[in-house]
Amino acid sequence: MAASFVHEDVLPFQVRDRFPARLRGSLRVSIVAPVYDEAPNLERLLERVSSVFGPHHDWELILVDDGSRDGSTRLIHELVERDPHVVGVFFDRNRGQTAATCAGVQLACGRFVATLDADLQNDPADLPQMLARLDSEGHAAVVGWRTRRRDGFVRRASSRIANAVRNFVSGDSIRDTGCSLKVFRADAIQSLPLFEGMHRFLPTLLRFHGWSVAEHPVEHHPRTAGYSKYGVTNRAWRATKDLLAVRWMRSRLLVLPIREVVDAR
Predict the structure, then answer these.
(1) CA dist., res. 111 & res. 115, Å (int)
(2) Sign for the pseudo-dihedral over CA of 227, 231, 237, 240
(3) Domains in the chain: how many in total?
(4) In what order do the strands lie in the sheet containing 182-185?
(5) What is the CATH classification number for the domain harbouring 96?
(6) Is residue 117 part of a domain?
(7) Is residue 255, in this structure, part of any structural domain at all?
């Protein structure tokens, strides 16, 4: 029987203290997938991740149910009972992709944390190469950029424009900020304070704080089940506000001009 823990609302920095049982394990990688009405995709997602990482016990798949209404909640419970690699995290209401990603990241047991969408447009088969680069090259993050996007023209065009605007305003140079397929050192990503909408800017925020970030070409597949929750109109204003917040954070970044530290010990 899977263990269950129930708490009231918690702030991101409180999560690991409130769920100490999650800290007892030590895995190589935790794979975090936010879930909002993705019931048709969850079985296939687990099968695909399992086919990539095998039966070994050094990985986990954390499915964060962001207030789903389509049966995803029940299905995640079933997957947890069936497969010890699966961890279910359940919100009592919809809070959005940043909150779901943050919850999974903070509850991760792995030395590395990977994020991907639950709709299988991201290919888990890209993760081993990305993790190998993270392990060997000393980066805090390796983030995907979709070389051949399988979306319609409007989404592709709006994404190109959004990437250009975000990089210009934020002062960064990430090719594909909208790609959810990313891998991080756990200590780096868990140290970041996150706010609403910040999942789009994780590589930029890491670079602001002095971490090294590399980019890696990844595959992209058309959605075959479920439906997209994101469109051009329902993201534009929110993304603009978030971008201005990131610009403000960059302009107010605290730098300590330490010249010398003397310690007699």
Answers:
(1) 14
(2) positive
(3) 1
(4) 86-90, 59-65, 27-35, 110-115, 182-185, 141-146, 213-218
(5) 3.90.550.10
(6) yes
(7) no
Helices (H), the chain: 15-18, 39-53, 72-82, 97-106, 127-137, 153-170, 186-189, 202-208, 233-251
Residue type, 132: A
What is the overall mean pLDDT for the chain?
84
- Which residues in the chain show pLDDT less than 50? 1, 154, 157, 170
SS (H, E, C) 163-221: HHHHHHHHCCCCCCCCCCCEEEEHHHHCCCCCCCCHHHHHHHHHHHCCCCEEEEEECEC
Taking the C-alpha atoms of residue 193 and residue 8, their distance in angstroms, rounded to an integer, is 20
CB–CB of 205/198 below 8 Å? yes
CA-atom Rg of the chain in angstroms = 19
- Domain of residue 55: give its range: 12-151+176-230
3: in domain: no
Residue 118 in domain: yes
> Which residues, listed in sequence order, are joined to residue 200 by a DSSP beta bridge?
none
The per-residue pLDDT for range 200-248, each reduced to its tens digit, is: 888 888 888 889 999 999 987 766 665 555 555 555 667 777 777 777 7
